[in-house]
C-alpha cells in the first residue's frame, strides 16, 4: 500500500527541546530550540493517571520535577503544581510539565516541526499511542509544520498508525536489528532512528543507500555529527543544536 510521504527532515533536531540549554520536555525548551536555530524538535510523551498526554521522559517524577513517585500515578491537576525547571537552573524555576496540546500550540506558533516520541509507561502502550495519535489527527493542521511520530514500542507504533494512518512514523531502536527493513515495512515506518553509540557511519551509509532516512540520537559532538551526516544520515538529534548547526554543510 501507499505510505505517507516522509516529512522534510532537517539535519538538526533538538533533543527533548534543547536539553543542554533548557529543561527538557518543557515549553521553555521548545522555545529555546527555536531560538538557537533548530527547525525541528524531538520530545517524549506519556500519560498522566487521568489519561492526559504530557511531555515527560521518565517513569518517575523525581529527576525532572520537584515531585516524587510514578508519573503514571499523578493526575494532571497535581502534576501542574510541580516545578519542572528548577532542577535545571533558577532561571527556569516554575516551568511546568506541559500537556501535549500546549506543546502543539507552541510548535504551530513557532513553525517548529516535531518528532513526537511516544514513550509509554510499561503496560500503557496502547492507551498512550491512541491518545497521542488521536490528538494529532484532530488538531495538527494539514498545512502545519512537519510531523514525525516515533517509538521504541511496536505496540505503540501499531496502535498510533491504526488511529492516525496518514501520519509519518519512525522506528526507534538502540542497535539496528538485522531485520530492520522488514520490521519497518511491518510497522509502516518510513524512517529509522538509531542510537549513535551502537551504530557505525558505514551502517548508516548502507541503510541510507536504500533510500531510508536515518536519524541518530543523541549526538552532542560536532565532529561525530559531521561523520554521520557525511555518511548520509538524514538528521542528528542533539541536546546542543547551537553546537551542531555549524557542523552542517550548507551547500
Ligand atoms: O527519540 C530519540 C531519543 O530521544 C530516544 O531516547 O531516551 O532520549 O527518549 P530517549
Ligand atoms: Mg526521546
From TrEMBL:
<dbReference type="GO" id="GO:0008081">
    <property type="term" value="F:phosphoric diester hydrolase activity"/>
</dbReference>
<dbReference type="GO" id="GO:0006629">
    <property type="term" value="P:lipid metabolic process"/>
</dbReference>
<feature type="domain" description="GP-PDE">
    <location>
        <begin position="10"/>
        <end position="248"/>
    </location>
</feature>
<protein>
    <submittedName>
        <fullName>Glycerophosphoryl diester phosphodiesterase</fullName>
    </submittedName>
</protein>
<dbReference type="InterPro" id="IPR030395">
    <property type="entry name" value="GP_PDE_dom"/>
</dbReference>
<dbReference type="InterPro" id="IPR017946">
    <property type="entry name" value="PLC-like_Pdiesterase_TIM-brl"/>
</dbReference>
<dbReference type="Pfam" id="PF03009">
    <property type="entry name" value="GDPD"/>
</dbReference>
Amino acid at each position: 500500500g501507499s505510505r505517507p510521504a516522509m516529512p522534510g527532515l532537517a539535519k538538526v533536531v533538538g533533543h527533548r527541546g534543547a536539553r543542554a540549554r533548557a529543561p527538557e520536555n518543557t515549553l521553555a525548551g521548545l522555545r529555546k530550540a527555536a531560538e538557537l536555530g533548530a527547525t525541528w524538535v524531538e520530545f517524549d510523551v506519556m500519560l498522566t493517571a487521568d489519561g492526559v498526554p504530557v511531555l515527560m521522559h521518565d517513569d518517575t517524577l523525581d529527576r525532572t520535577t520537584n515531585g516524587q513517585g510514578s508519573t503514571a500515578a499523578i493526575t494532571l491537576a497535581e502534576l501542574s503544581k510541580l516545578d519542572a525547571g528548577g532542577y535545571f537552573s533558577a532561571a527556569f524555576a516554575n516551568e511546568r510539565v506541559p500537556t501535549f496540546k500546549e506543546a502543539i500550540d507552541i510548535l504551530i506558533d513557532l513553525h517548529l516541526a516535531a518528532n513526537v516520541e511516544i514513550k509509554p509507561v510499561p503496560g500503557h502502550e496502547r492507551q498512550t499511542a491512541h491518545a497521542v495519535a488521536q490528538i494529532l489527527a484532530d488538531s495538527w493542521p494539514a498545512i502545519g509544520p512537519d510531523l514525525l511520530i516515533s517509538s521504541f514500542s511496536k505496540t505503540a507504533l501499531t496502535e498510533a498508525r491504526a488511529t492516525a494512518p496518514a501520519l509519518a512514523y519512525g522506528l526507534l531502536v538502540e542497535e539496528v536489528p538485522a531485520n530492520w527493513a522488514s520490521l519497518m515495512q511491518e510497522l509502516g515506518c518510513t524512517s529509522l532512528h538509531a542510537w549513535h553509540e551502537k551504530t557505525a557511519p558505514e551502517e548508516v551509509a548502507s541503510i541510507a543507500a536504500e533510500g531510508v532516512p536515518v536519524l541518530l540520537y543523541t549526538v552532542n559532538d560536532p565532529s561525530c555529527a559531521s561523520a554521520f551526516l557525511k555518511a548520509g544520515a538524514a538528521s542528528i538529534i542533539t541536546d546542543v543544536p547551537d553546537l551542531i548547526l555549524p557542523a552542517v554543510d550548507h551547500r
